[in-house]
Specification:
Elements: H1 28-39, E1 45-46, E2 51-55, E3 61-65, E4 69-71, E5 76-80, H2 89-101, E6 107-110, H3 112-122
Parallel strand pairs: 5-6
Antiparallel strand pairs: 1-4, 2-3, 4-5
Amino acid sequence: MLPWFEVTLETPDFQAYRGQEPPRFANKAELECAKVLDYYGVPWEYEPTTFVLEEDEDGRVVEAFKPDFYLPEQELYVEVTVMKQSLVTRKNRKLRKLRERYPEVRVKLFYKRDIERLAERYHLELAS
C-alpha cells in the first residue's frame, strides 16, 4: 500500500505480535482484527510477505499481493477487506492467482460482512 493511503491509528502494545517494526494498519478494521488476535494470544505478523503474481518479460513485477496478517502457528495468511462487495472482484482474482502460483500457501479472505459479524460479536468499533 502506498504511504499516503495509510491510516494513522494508535497502535496498542501488542503481546502476540511477532514483527520487528510496529505495524501501520491501512484501516480501522485491520487494527480491530489485530486486537482480537492479540486478545486471544494468537501469534501474528502484519504484512510480512509479498507474493509475486505476475512478471513482465524482463522479470519486473507487474502484479503482487501482500496479505494483511500471517498466523505462524496456523501457517495461515489472512486478508481483511472492508470494500463493498461489488469492488471485491479484483481482490478475489488476486487470490485465485496466488493459489495457482503458490498452491502450498494457505490464505483466508475475510469480507466486510465477516468483519461486521466479528465486530458485533466482540463489540469492536470499526468506524474510521
